[in-house]
Amino acid sequence: MSIDIASALRHAAARGLDRLDARMLLLHALGRAPHDRAWLLAHDGDALDAPVQAAFDAACTRRLAGEPVAYLTGEKEFFGLALRVDARVLVPRPDTETLVEWTLDVLAGLDAPSVLDLGTGSGAIALAIRSRRADARVQAIDASADALAVARANAERLGLPVAFAHGSWLQGHTGRHDCIVSNPPYVAAADPHLAALAHEPLAALASGADGLDDIRAIVSQAPAHLAPGGWLLLEHGWDQAGAVQALLAAAGFAQVHSRDDLAGIARCTGGKWPAVE
User: Fold this and answer.
1) Which pairs from 63-70 meet CB under 8 Å and 24+ separation?
2) What is the pLDDT of residue 255?
3) Distances from the Cα of 204 to the Cαs of 83, 136, 145, 214, 227, in angstroms?
4) Strand, coil or helix: 114
5) Tens digit of pLDDT for each residue in 117-129?
6) pLDDT given at position 276
7) 3 state DSSP class of 274
8) Half-sphere exposure (Cβ direction) of 8: Cα atoms closer than 13 Å
9) d(CA 243, CA 266)
10) Which of 21, 86, 125, 223 is 20 to 30 Å from 62 at the Cα level?
11) What does the alpha-carbon distance between residue 171 and residue 145 come to, in Å, rounded to a whole number?
């Protein structure tokens, strides 16, 4: 039996689905833009075709099982860019925009700066930087060939030239950069919160007993690949700012400090490599 839009959304709410999630999934099933919520209100009495209703019900079931909305719709907005995402990459988080903004601040005043994004995933950080700095030479590395396929497709679709390479952090990399930026795995392997992220790639989330193994590797490798006066900027867990600051300071970085995310939590930490080595 056919139902209308309002009834479909009420049924989804009765199943326990978040209202915004339900609207985004219904818009996707209808083939409409994810921000077209006003259209739903204006057409809440419209009947849903059987295929649309079936697609919406199936998406609701998958969402209630914990699958991210971005995987179900195939798209996530990040820094004004519509990125295609799927289970091969992490879903870009709004908090990571803080890392992009910090990078752009570091690059201000530099002509044709060189930037390296480590663990690029969907390409979110690299592409966001390139979208705001057309003169920047942006490179991006990831250990996952699947993730690189997603990132390259996003770059091509958005028309944003970024040089992608396969590798484990900076091993085998050559060249020096004005800024190295990364949102690496930083969750402790035994963290119970990982259960809620079971649909996303574990290798992009967990990093050793304390969650800092990959950050340690990046901090130790980065100095050989930073131009004098270049910056290393890292995203990390909500309670890791002090530990990351200590790692950077011990490695010889100067001006080490952290920046808060949208919730006022210190989630990014960076340091400047001395101009005179």
Assistant:
1) 63/17, 63/21, 63/25, 64/15, 64/16, 64/17, 66/196, 66/198, 66/199, 67/199, 68/199, 68/200, 69/21, 69/24, 69/25
2) 97
3) 18, 26, 13, 10, 27
4) strand
5) 999 999 999 999 9
6) 66
7) coil
8) 33
9) 12
10) 125
11) 16
Q: What's the CA gap between 25 and 91, in Å, rounded?
A: 16
Question: At 253, which amino acid appears?
Answer: F
The one-letter code for the residue type at 198 is: A
For residues 156 and 122, give the distance between their C-alpha atoms in angstroms, rounded to a whole number: 12
Three-state SS for 190-231 is CCHHHHHHCCCCHHHCECCCCCCHHHHHHHHHHHHHEEEEEE
| Short-list 86, 88, 79, CA closest to 124 | 79
Using alpha carbons only, give the angle 113, 115, 116 rounded to the nearest 5 degrees: 165
Tokens of 223: 């100095």
Question: 123: Cβ–Cβ under 8 A, 6 or more apart, which residues?
Answer: 83, 117, 140, 150, 151, 152, 154, 155, 162, 164
Q: Is the pLDDT of residue 1 over 80?
A: no
pTM for the structure as a whole: 0.91
Q: Pairing state of beta strands 114-118 and 177-182?
A: parallel
Residue 96 burial (10 A CB sphere; 0-12, 13-18, 19+): buried
Q: Which tokens sit at 187?
A: 């969750």
β-pairing, 137-142 vs 114-118, is parallel
Q: Enumerate residues 6+ apart whose C-beta is below 8 A from 116.
A: 138, 139, 140, 141, 173, 177, 179, 180, 181, 225
Going through 112-265 in order, the beta strands assigned E by DSSP cover 114-118, 137-142, 163-166, 177-182, 226-235, 254-260
Task: Return all residues near 254 (Cβ < 8 A) that are at least 6 apart.
Answer: 271, 272, 273, 274
